[in-house]
Write a structure and sequence with these properties.
The chain has 232 residues and is of the alpha+beta class. The chain contains 9 helices and 6 strands; from the N terminus they run ββααααααβαβαββα.
Length: 232
């Protein structure tokens, strides 16, 4: 009810307070679900988890995130893990989730927190870059350029769905994709305000290719957008 996660959760049973990695990976997974399905509920859920993570885990003095929450069990020392092992560290995934959420919503606070995390842990990354490979992906995302692609059209139109599939295909780690319905987009615009004016131009779906929120002229030529992404 308070927005926190547990290590174990079953009907009528929950145990073990969630750690940083639980919030970071869950947030990332929700962002993946949003871009795959374009269901707004996943983006909202990711934002709620990230907001909770910032309050409970962020080291506001030195940057980065503690392993345990501020309201959890009080430890003599709150550890802060940054090394990527068999799975990425909670700090790596938290930083990436913040960067991606910032690009999707346009909210500066998320990218500011990510920048502070990268700066705060830069010493460890510099000393052992091979042990911070996921963190380096976050650094690459932060340095940019990033690509924001908005596809505006009727979600039920096969042409719109085809455009989405083709836009998703190029492997561009610093790319985010948003489907902006041609009508009934008001709920999305409350979370992603910059899509409000990105309407349909002409017939069929319209694509807006943006770099760091500076957008090119809208186009209906999906192939040209795909080629631009492949050339990154």
């Amino acid at each position: 009810e308070d927005g926190s996660l547990y290590k174990v959760a079953r009907p009528g049973l929950s145990a073990g307070s969630g750690l940083l990695e639980d919030y970071a990976f869950a947030s990332w997974g929700l962002l993946e679900l949003f871009e795959t399905s374009q269901e707004l509920r996943f983006l909202k859920a990711a934002r709620e988890l990230v907001d909770y993570m910032l309050v409970e885990f962020e080291d506001t003095d030195a940057g980065g995130f503690f392993l345990s929450s501020a309201s959890g069990e009080q430890l003599i020392v709150r550890p802060k893990e940054s090394t990527d092992g068999a799975i990425p560290s909670g700090n790596s995934m938290a930083t990436l989730a913040l960067l991606r959420l910032g690009r999707l919503t346009g909210e500066v606070k998320y990218e500011t927190a990510a920048a502070e995390s990268l700066e705060g842990l830069s010493g460890s990354i510099t000393r052992a870059p091979g042990s911070h490979t996921q963190f380096l992906m976050g650094l690459d995302f932060a340095l940019g350029p990033t690509k924001e692609v908005v596809v505006t059209g009727d979600p039920a139109d096969p042409k719109t769905q085809d455009a989405l599939r083709r836009i998703h295909r190029p492997f561009v780690p610093s790319k985010v994709v948003i489907l902006r319905p041609s009508s009934g987009y008001e709920a999305l615009a409350k979370v992603v305000p910059y899509v409000e004016l990105q309407g349909v131009v002409g017939e069929g779906p319209t694509l807006y290719l943006c770099q760091d929120f500076a957008c090119q002229a809208p186009t209906g030529d999906v192939q040209s957008v795909v080629e631009a992404l492949e050339g990154v």
